[in-house]
Structure formats: structure tokens, C-alpha cells
Amino acid sequence: MIQSFQDRFSEFKKVKPLLDIFSNPFTISVENAPESMQLEIIDIQNDQDLRNKFNEGDLLNFYRCIDKNTYKKLRINALKCASLFGSTYICEQTFSILNNNKTKNRNRLANESLEAVLRVATSKFEPNIKKIVSTMQCHASN
After folding, report:
1. Which one, of 21, 126, 32, 8, lies nearest residue 78 by Cα?
2. Which of 45, 65, 77, 111 is the most buried (most CB within 10 A)?
3. Can you state the percent helix, strand and coil of the chain, rounding each to 5?
4. Which residues of 24-52 are buried (b: 16+ CB within 10 A; e: fewer)?
5. pLDDT digit of tens for each residue in the chain (142 aa)?
């Protein structure tokens, strides 16, 4: 278990410098940044308007505001870092849903059924129950 834990978090050690840049490009030491990003970091650290925007506190909104062409590598890094945690959460959530639906008593579920269960469980679609019920009542009365 300890080895599994160390293996899982060893990946974070590899991306730590990129996560540091993502979390605050204004305090990172330029020398510690990858060479390909150093000029962009120097430019952004000298831009007072962007520093003020960053200090407003909404990290993702800050990265939406920076110029796509001027800070291309910083934006790509931000996209990668921001998606890192969201995709892990979605993966674990989906696996949990799968485990909850494929229990000992429901072990005969075919792959197609499980796919349908996962699609419904992970969808943001909200069905209009009242409309469905009224439609069913209309069909039943005809």
C-alpha cells in the first residue's frame, strides 16, 4: 500500500514545477521554470495589469484573460494543470458509479446496459418528469 501511494504521488513530483507556475506565475523563479516558458514568465511578471487581474483571486478567469498568442505556453500549461484534477475526479466518480451498479445481485448486466447506466449517471441532462407523466397519461387514455 505504501508503494502504491508513493507511485501515485511520484507523478506529482514530476509536474510540480508546472503546477507552481500555474498556481502563481508571478512568484516563480524564472531560473526554475522550463526554458521554453521563461520569456513568457518574465513578460507576465512585468505586466502590472495582469498582476492586478491575478490578485482578484479567480485563477481560471485569470488564464482566460491572458493573450493567447503572447502567453501561449503559459495558457497551454494552465489548461493541462486545470484539467488534471477534473479528469481524475470524473474518472473516479464514473468508476464508483460502475461499482455501485454492477453489484453481486446485478452481475448479469450486459456491457450495453452498463454503458447506458453510466451515460445517464454522468449526464447533466435533467428530465422533465411532469411532461413525461402527462404524455404517458395522454397515451394511456387514448
Report:
1. 21
2. 77
3. 75, 0, 25
4. ebeebeeeebeeebeebbeebeebeebee
5. 677 767 766 777 778 888 899 999 999 999 989 999 999 999 999 999 999 999 988 888 899 989 999 999 999 999 888 887 666 666 667 767 777 766 666 666 677 777 777 777 777 778 788 888 888 877 776 6
